[in-house]
Amino acid sequence: MGKLWQKETSLDSLMEEFSVGSDYVIDQELVKSDILGSMAHAQGIHRAGLLSDEELDVLLTALRKLFERSENGSFEIRREDEDCHTALEGYLTEMVGTAGKKIHTGRSRNDQVQTALRIWMREKLLTLHSHTLELSLTLHAFARQYEMVPMAGRTHMQIAMPSSVGLWAASFSEQLLDLSGHLLNLYYRVDMSPLGSAASYGSPVPIDRSFTAQLLGFKKIQRNVLYANNSRGLFEGMILDGCDYIALTLSKLAQDLILFSLPEFGYFSLNPKLCTGSSIMPQKKNPDGLELTRSRSSMISAYALQVKSIIRSLPSGYNRDFQDTKEPFIKGMNATILLVQIMNHMMNGITVHEHALTGACTGELYATDEVLKRLAEGRSFRDVYREVGMDLDSVASYDPQETLKTRTSEGTTGNLLLEELAADLLEEKEAGDVLRAQLSESYRALFGSEISLS
Prior knowledge:
Blueprint: H1 13-20, H2 23-26, H3 31-47, H4 53-72, H5 84-96, H6 98-101, H7 109-145, E1 150-155, E2 158-164, H8 165-190, E3 192-193, H9 209-215, E4 220-221, H10 225-230, H11 234-260, E5 268-269, H12 288-311, H13 323-347, E6 351-352, H14 354-359, H15 367-375, H16 381-390, H17 400-406, H18 418-447
Helix pairs in contact: 3-4, 3-7, 3-9, 4-5, 7-8, 7-13, 7-18, 8-11, 8-18, 11-12, 11-13, 12-13, 15-16
């Protein structure tokens, strides 16, 4: 069929290549979401008296069949379709005739795209939330296992104060817990339906937007139809910023692992199956996964900036520029999910060398402890500070593990609060599980059978 906007004249071939770009390829990601959105819209226009009972039935049956075709890979989107939305309507018209031509009544391609994207982003947020928590749990278990293994704490990359492997790993676990909570906050923010907002100004068709929102499992509608349009790209940018925070965290984790697994450090070893070799140097075991984590982190940052740069100066109402926010958004989300998965894989393959870690806890590490010890003699801090700093060799030998136990303030090496962290992780996981269950139930009711979430 022709494009959704096409009337009589055909589009110049160069203009078609320029305007379509790779949209029809990336749209394969949205087919399932567009089918669900179309099922809800069909029931909406049926409720408004614009589809007969029979037409609704044949449309829903056809949409279920198209879902099966999408699942088995036989739902084709061609360049001339522009996107999955034209392809979907074309398949429906081919399958059920006139009823298929009625599916677009009361909606524009804009709110059709918006709805499909909103459905997709909800699922992906929950998927990323789940994987981020899984990595946080892995780091928590790592912290528990090596809770009292000494590690030299560093500032400015120089020896600073006594620390532990447990403190190091738990820091990343807690950070990822907070970032996973941020993902759920984003989920709650975007959990509202744009369906029925049309091209920015609604439609004369009396569609019950709250009804279709409920069918799709949205908490509510996005009330103002112009805001629904203007939020396109905005929500994508907010989510990509959330992805960026996770990627930044994982880049720091990767950098630490690269350093700590250097032969000169020898604190950790990486799983050899997760390292590559050199084409010329037979001894090499390269931490490519960790290095690529750093570079992919910058790519995710770039995706976030790309989306926000596109929408920065747009006037209100629909503008074609929005099309170019789709690809970086989808690629950025998928890249972040893969990044979290590979880092979980890397952490599960770490070998800890306790002897090397303890051996790195040289005397200078306890300089601050020595200052505080001498203060007990009633001397001034500044005098003792200079005295120790000018003669580090005078610092007495300290037992690394016993020193860790003397730190008893909350969150320090002798009191890591790992049980409290575990409780928070469980609570966060349960919150995500509730949302996944609610979404699954909504889809089951709409589709008539179970649909797997991404």
